Amino acid sequence: PPSSELGGSGLAWEAGMSVQEDVREISQRLNALGGEQPEMETLVMAGCFILCWGKFESICLPTIGQARPDQDPARYQDSIGHFCAESIQDDTDFTRFEPSFEHFRRRYRGPIKFTDHFTFLIGNDARAGNVIDDILEREPNSTREKVEALLLIAYRLRGNLVHGLKWTSGLQDQVDNFTHASRVLLGAIEQFR
Length: 193
Hints:
The chain has a two-stranded antiparallel ribbon with strand order 1-2. A hairpin with a 6-residue loop joins β1 (4-5) and β2. Helices cover 64% and strands 2% of the residues. α7 (143-162) packs across α9 (175-192). The protein is mainly α. It is built from 9 helices and 2 strands; from the N terminus they run ββααααααααα. The model is unreliable at 1-13 (pLDDT under 50).
């Protein structure tokens, strides 16, 4: 099959390329645009995370998951809060969420204050930051409160990834974040069903 040049990058697209070749080509093109080139594990887990987020939105937040240009970030946070209030009981078994909760607590909460990772995660979203801060800093918390904080962390990761902030703060150490956030989203869906 004939190939055609794409965007002056010098890379050619061939019909019938394997998935691995497609990923390699896309990764090379991303790298050619400048900045760090995400490793394969980062690309794979970012893709899994985005798919898990989409599934979470479609099942658990069906009215908010419809893309609209006027979507207020507070509506997402309110919807996550409503979902947790309606679907996650205070005494629900937290076992499936515990490893992710501990991962994010270690990553975002230092011995005295929050880490730089937390600052990059939250950005200007003080509302989500206050909820997450409150839950990570104090014990004991109900399962509902902890799951809400975890879903808000996933929400902030998603926003930072799709709106470009992860490109400025770095993608190389995000595999564990994307993995744990995906597990949280799947756990919430499983709990909801």
